[in-house]
Amino acid sequence: MRSVDLIIIGGGPAGLAAAISAYESGCRDLLILEREETLGGILKQCIHNGFGLHTFHEELTGPEYAQRYIDKVLQYQIPYQCDTMVIEVTPDRRVTAVSRANGLQQFQAKAVILAMGCRERPRGALAIPGWRCSGIYTAGTAQRFVNLEGILPGKRVVILGSGDIGLIMARRMTFVGAKVLACVELMPYSSGLKRNIVQCLDDYNIPLLFNHTVVDIKGRERLEGVTVAEVDPKTHRPIAGTERDYDCDTLLLSVGLIPENELSRMAGVRLSPATKGAVVDENLETSVPGVFSCGNVLHVHDLVDYVSEEAGQAGKNAAAFLRGEQKETGRTIPVVDGFGVSGAVPQKIHVGGADEAVNVMFRPRGVYRNAKIVVSAGDRELYSRKARILTPGEMVNLKLRPEQLRRIGEAAELAVKVEAS
Questions:
Q1: Domain final residue pick, 255, 275, 310
Q2: Residue where a domain stops, chosen among 239, 255, 271
Q3: Which of 165, 141, 255, 158 is nearest to 206 (CA)?
């Protein structure tokens, strides 16, 4: 058993940013545990640009963005172990890991930061009829094949779902010579960023079919085609007579991301049904004292810049916890989702003595135009701002200033809502 002040589980953008922030906040006894062979996480295969505009004020590719943080880790000589799988985290912050190089290891940590990221929802969660033939991949798997391994999954492609990875892979598959026949979306709106719809679909004349889904998969050994049908916007059930066949050899799935919270459950962390991630307070501390969560394992972000910002806060707060300086004054009130709001984070805030702004993030439940975002405590409005358009594909990020937090008073909850015109 080895004692470590701070263990960071995950060496992707969240884990790297959290480690750097903790180090810069004075923590010197820390360790990053990463299951892949190198640091960087999912960014290693995201070779497209568009990263870093908020953090570095310049446009970078995914590997370039990750390298900025890896260079800092090397500069600070922050210890890390790659090719190391964490298999258990207990409520008393005992971490068990296994690797080829070191075998079975146990660490007793004073604080733990969970930064495991997320995974893609697989075909098994969709209940699409058809054989389990080859040629069906999650969009991230196809991205790894093309960008890291130089393998072309297929030449005629249909994409189910309009998440950002799927949109980006529509363009990438076009670049490498494949024909993308359509991007099919169950909802009446896209779950991806507007800029990705324009730059990845519109610019290459790839149709985006809203209120449609795949209802059949043809082919026994290899995918031979799919059947797409329109769905009822309310029930999402296929409408008879609207079926259309596409001859294709590849189906890419971009139907959502799931936070990797198996270790969080082992540690006894309470999870949110809305975000599928941990329930945290304004310090990003979970229901287990000394265990913090950040990045896509907490809630799925749209921009990696927001992941880094949030993880930096988690690292800073973990260092304060280790010094015994973390401020948790006054009572705790819940942050609740009002109309038009899904998965507001943090889910609770300590009231009293607030001297730092609290960052609140959420996803809109639908598309709202000329709306207003409102945060209220009882009948008292603490915050409001107008928004020309809100969509589920783009997160809302707002900051509650200390003077606003002090106005909460004796209210039982803090409500975040959208007022649509």
A1: 255
A2: 255
A3: 158
